[in-house]
Amino acid sequence: MSVADHWLEAAYQDRFWLWPLRPLGMLYRAVMTRREAAYRCGKRAVWQAPVPVIVVGNITLGGTGKSPLVAWLTRWLSERGYTPGIVTRGYGGKAPSYPLWVTPETPVAQSGDEPLMLAQQTGVAVVADPLRARGAKTLAAAGCNVIVSDDGLQHLALGRDIELAVVDGARGLGNGRCLPAGPLREPPERLNRVDAVLVNGELQAALMVASTPMRLAPIGWRELKSNKHRPLSPLPFTPPVHALAGIGRPERFFTTLKALGISGEWHAFPDHYPYDAASLRFTPAEDPQPLVMTAKDAVKCRDVAPPDSWVLDVEATLPPEFEQWLAARLATLSEETN
């Protein structure tokens, strides 16, 4: 476990050695509060798209399940006749220029892992750009009539019509303190100003705001090399396995594997880890075991993983009440722009 991972775990558990950092946390909180106020009152420029913008984000560090929600949103929108597009920062990638149109064939070194994964999963237009407003302009000019901003809650230069904040049910808001004394990017009160709070998994601690349950459900296996899909059962491989996860919270993936009855050894990597063949060599070549991974890891492992490698695909599931609320909000926005 890296130093950053140790610190993050301590922040969620409120370890005593973080207490001296509380004054810095209070300073960070004040800076973020003033920054948000500056955008809201017009002191800082905000670009408002001519089409509805749905921002998906969180106020904590670490994985919460934002990307599966973004994928769910684009599928849901497409099924209802919209032409959605995704704008994302492109973390971990370095493109020759921006905005970068991300296709299923874009090199992951240029796009970053999550944008490439979303392009492969959704089939909709995906643009990576550190300047979200510029990326959103590109999507709107290309004919997208709804823009979904992935991990965009703190990118206030892009105007938004709907804000969705995702919270990890198991971790909640940790010790409730801002960086570096805690895991929060913004004060807890920020959740009072979003349109909906979605809790991924069973909520272990009170949030003090109304929330909607969200679950990540396994939907099937995918052979990494061929991209062929297989059902969850029977297993297309024989355990025990080596399982790897370079995501915000690897334990969630390993818990899912255990629930599916899969045994083996678990290998947690830092988020956005740049895999190579050596990092995936867990057993001698003469005694290989199947390798299983997340969809986010798969986009970086396809060219370096051993032949018997598998991807567990998951999708977000949300209650009908949330779908009804979202449909009504979008209908209202359409009436206002017509």
Automatic annotation (TrEMBL):
<keyword id="KW-0808">Transferase</keyword>
<dbReference type="GO" id="GO:0005524">
    <property type="term" value="F:ATP binding"/>
</dbReference>
<protein>
    <recommendedName>
        <fullName>Tetraacyldisaccharide 4'-kinase</fullName>
        <ecNumber>2.7.1.130</ecNumber>
    </recommendedName>
</protein>
<keyword id="KW-0547">Nucleotide-binding</keyword>
<dbReference type="InterPro" id="IPR027417">
    <property type="entry name" value="P-loop_NTPase"/>
</dbReference>
<dbReference type="InterPro" id="IPR003758">
    <property type="entry name" value="LpxK"/>
</dbReference>
<keyword id="KW-0418">Kinase</keyword>
<keyword id="KW-0444">Lipid biosynthesis</keyword>
<dbReference type="Pfam" id="PF02606">
    <property type="entry name" value="LpxK"/>
</dbReference>
<keyword id="KW-0067">ATP-binding</keyword>
<dbReference type="GO" id="GO:0009245">
    <property type="term" value="P:lipid A biosynthetic process"/>
</dbReference>
<comment type="function">
    <text>Transfers the gamma-phosphate of ATP to the 4'-position of a tetraacyldisaccharide 1-phosphate intermediate (termed DS-1-P) to form tetraacyldisaccharide 1,4'-bis-phosphate (lipid IVA).</text>
</comment>
<comment type="pathway">
    <text>Glycolipid biosynthesis; lipid IV(A) biosynthesis; lipid IV(A) from (3R)-3-hydroxytetradecanoyl-[acyl-carrier-protein] and UDP-N-acetyl-alpha-D-glucosamine: step 6/6.</text>
</comment>
<keyword id="KW-0443">Lipid metabolism</keyword>
<dbReference type="GO" id="GO:0009244">
    <property type="term" value="P:lipopolysaccharide core region biosynthetic process"/>
</dbReference>
<keyword id="KW-0441">Lipid A biosynthesis</keyword>
<comment type="similarity">
    <text>Belongs to the LpxK family.</text>
</comment>
<dbReference type="GO" id="GO:0005886">
    <property type="term" value="C:plasma membrane"/>
</dbReference>
<dbReference type="GO" id="GO:0009029">
    <property type="term" value="F:lipid-A 4'-kinase activity"/>
</dbReference>
